[in-house]
Amino acid sequence: MGYVRGLRCRECGAEYPPAQRIVCDACFGPLEVAYEIDAVREAFRREALATRSADLWRYRELLPVFDESSKVDLRPGFTPLRRAGNLAEALGLRDVWVKDDTVNPTYSFKDRPVAVAIAKAREWNLAAVGCASTGNLAAATAAAAAKARLPCYVFAPASLEPGKLLLPRIYGATVVPIDGTYDEANRVALLAADRRGWGFVNINLRPYYAEGSKTLLFETWEQLGFDLPDVIVTPLGSGLLLTSLEKGIRELRELGELSGDETRLVGTQASGCAPIVRGFEAPDGRLRPVKRPETIAESLAIGDPGSGSEAIQAMRTTHGFADAPSDAEILEGQRLLAQTEGVFAEPAGGTTVATLRRAREDGRIDRSERVVLLVTGNGLKAPGVWRETFPPLTPVPPTPAAVDAFLGGTGDG
Amino acid sequence: MVKLVLASPIAVATQGEREIDLEFEGTLAQLFEVVSGRYGRQFHQRIFDGDGRLKRFVNVYVNGEDARYIKGLETPIPRDATVDLLPAIAGGWGVP
CB distance from B61 to chain A under 8 Å? Predict the structure, then answer.
C-alpha cells in the first residue's frame, strides 16, 4: 500500500482501509487519504525530488497509487511558476507569481486529479470511468480514459461552451448533455455511476481524485525554493481544490518542511455564483447554495458545491478570505493577465486576478506580500466570452495604401 | 407508491436496501419517520444531526428537485414521488 495508512473522515476522524469508499459510514462525512508520515519523511527529501520526472508523480510518496503500471502516462503537472512582474507593477504589488496550469495535457489543472483517479480505477479494474463536469474535467477525464483504454461517460450541462462539449467527444468519450445545471448533471451522474459500478472521478473516486490537486501546492513550494508564499489565490468551483491545497500545507508541515509564517488561502468565485464566498461571509459559515448560477465563469458555476464547507473551514483556519468579483471585473482580469504576462486564462483565471486587484485596493492583501495566483484553465477553451469586447475584424485589402489607412499613417514620421 | 432511492454509501442506514417502495403520502419529515419505523432508530440517527436537522452530508431530492428549494422537511411527498437520498458530493445542505 505504499505510504498510505488509510482513509480518514474529515468530520469524525474514523479511519477505513484504502478501498473504494467515498464517505464515512458513521457520519457520512467526506474522507481523505491519510499517510504514514514518518515513512514518507524518510523518502520525501528535497535533494531526491530534484532528480525526479517533471510531472506530478515526483511527489509519489504523497499520492495514493499502489500499482505503478496503473498510471496513465500523459504527464500532467510540474507546470511553470512564472514571475509576474508586469502584473505586479500594474496592481501596485511587489512580488506576484502565476502558477500556469493552462499548459497541462488538456489545458487545465484537472489533468492532475484525473491522473490519480484513473490510476485507481485501473487498480480496481473498473469497467468504465466518467465524471460530472463544468467543462474542463470532461476533457481531462476523456483524454486519460482514452490512454487507459477505458470507456468514458461525461455528464455536463448541454449549455456549455461548444468547445468544452466537443473536446471529450474527440477523445472518444460519450457526452451525456444534461438539460439543466451542473448540479443537476452531478446528481444524475452520481445515480448512474452508483447503479452501474462505474468509477466517476469526482464522485465515487473523490478522496483519491482530490490528492492530485494538492500537487499544485507541492510544486509551488518546490519552485519557490522550498518555500510557500504569503498568499495563494485560487478559484472555487466545488471547493475541492482549495481544500486539497490546505491538506498539502498540513502534510508539508507534518513532514517538518515548513517553517515561518503560514500561507493564507484566498478563494474566489464569480458574484453570479458565490455559494462558498457568501457562506464564508456569513456568521454561521454555512454554504449559501445558488439554484441558477449566472456567470461567464462557467467552469466555476457550481451552485451547490460538494466541498464548499471544507473550503470555508480551510480559508478560516489559514486566516485567508473569500471574494466574489463581477463578470466585468473577471473579464478585465483575464485581459490584464494576457496583456501584462502573456498568459491567456479562462474566466476562472481572470477571477483570481480580479480578486487580487480588489484585495490590494481595499487592503486585504498588502503590497509587501508574496502572492501566487493559480491559473487553472486555458482561455482558448472559453473564447465565447470575448465576442462583445473583440467583434469580428473587417478584412484589409492587401495594398500599402489600405494598410496605411488601417494603421492611420504612412510610417514616414 | 413512493420510491425511495438511496445511493450505496447512504444505504448503510437501510441495511443495504437501495430502493424502497412505500405506500405513503405526506411530508418529507413524515416519510423519514415511516422509514425509521421500518429500519429502526439507527436510520434516523444516521440521517439527522443532534439538533434534529438533516445532516449536511446528505442531500434529498423529490422528483429530481432539491428539497431545500421546495419546503425542506415540510416538502409534500405525493403518492407517486421518487425521493433520492444522496451523499453531499452532489452538494451539501447549506442553510438550515
Answer: yes
Residues of A in contact with B10 (CB under 8 A): 28
Find the closest chain A residue to B88 by CA distance.
A306
Pick the CATH number of A85-100+220-386 from 3.40.50.1100, 3.30.230.70, 3.40.50.150, 3.20.20.80: 3.40.50.1100
Delineate the domains of chain B, giving CATH numbers in brackets.
2-90 (3.10.20.30)
**What average pLDDT does this structure show over B14-37?**
94
**Per-residue pLDDT tens over the stretch A31-40:** 999 999 999 9
**Count of helices and strands (H, E) across chain A:** 15, 13
Domain extents for chain A?
85-100+220-386
Sheet holding A199-200, edge to edge: A174-178, A152-157, A129-132, A199-200
Helix (H) or strand (E) holding A146: helix A136-148
With a cut of 60, say whether residue B93 has pLDDT above it.
no
> Is B11 an interface residue toward A (CB < 8 Å)?
no
d(CA A162, CA A387): 14
Instruction: Tell whether B5 is within 8 A of chain A (Cβ).
Output: yes
CB neighbour list of residue B70: distance below 8 Å, 6 or more residues apart: B62
User: Cβ of B64 under 8 Å from any chain A Cβ?
Assistant: yes
Residues of chain A found within 8 Å of residue B68, distances taken between Cβ atoms? 289
CA distance A249 to A62: 12
Q: pTM, whole model, 2 decimals? A: 0.94
How many CB atoms are located within 10 Å of the residue B74 CB? 11
Q: Which residue of B has its CA nearest to A189?
A: B90
Interface residue B10 vs chain A (CB under 8 A): yes
A11 touches chain B (CB under 8 A): yes
Q: Which residues pair with A108 in a beta bridge?
A: A377
Q: Does A192 touch chain B (CB under 8 A)?
A: no
Q: Give Dmax over CA atoms of chain B in angstroms.
A: 31
pLDDT in tens, A204-256: 999 999 999 999 999 999 999 999 999 999 999 999 999 999 999 999 999 99
Q: Which residue has the cell 464517505?
A: A23
Would the pLDDT of B96 be above 90? no
**Residue of A194, A200, A243 to mutate, testing the B interface (most B Cβ within 10 Å of its Cβ):** A194
What does the block give as the cell for A359?
A: 484585495
CA A11 to chain centroid, in Å, comes to 23
**Nearest neighbour of B91 by CB, restricted to A25, A279, A289:** A289
**Residue from the list A21, A291, A308 with its beta carbon closest to the beta carbon of B92:** A308
In the sheet with A31-35, reading across from the earlier edge strand, the strands are A15-16, A4-9, A31-35
Residues of A in contact with B66 (CB under 8 A): 183, 289, 291, 304
**Cα A217 to Cα A245: distance, rounded to the nearest angstrom:** 6
